[in-house]
Amino acid sequence: MTSETHSGTYEPGGPPQPTVPEEDVSKVVELQEEINQLKEAVTSHAVVDQAIGMMVAMGRVTPDQGWTVLRDVSQHTNIKLRNIAELIIIWGQKGDLPPDIRATLEDALDRYGPTFLPDDSLPP
């Protein structure tokens, strides 16, 4: 018998159980890993989008500038962008942001913003 047999095995007290070819098992494992990666990507994307929204609201920057600010802070602090986004969300909820990250964030906002509302005639 080869690993590709479909004849099944017999277990006492039950019907024969089909034998799954080894390549099918490895494909299922591969697909499950891909599903897990996609779930993590969707969650990560939502966290980053929320942090961009905070940059837009609090930093008066455009969404593109908000993304650039997050990327800039991530690069200057050597912290993954998703983790920076999580810290910024916590900051929005609790008002707590590590001083070094806050300073880097303020510097980035100074470089990429603020933008002005359409009816603003003069900068603040």
Give helix % range: 55-70%
Number of strands: 0
| Rg on CA atoms, Å | 25 Å
Quote the average pLDDT: 81
**Overall form:** elongated
Overview in brief:
This protein has helices at 22-59, 63-77, 81-94, 99-112.
Show the helix and strand layout.
Layout: H1 22-59, H2 63-77, H3 81-94, H4 99-112
Helix pairs in contact: 1-2, 1-3, 2-3, 2-4
Write structural notes for this entry:
By secondary structure, this protein is mostly helical. It has helices spanning 22-59, 63-77, 81-94, 99-112. The longest helix is centred in the first third of the chain and has 38 residues, at 22-59. Mean pLDDT is 81; it is low at 1-7.
Task: Considering the chains and any ligands shown, give keywords for the structure.
4 helices, elongated, 124 residues, 0% strand, mainly alpha
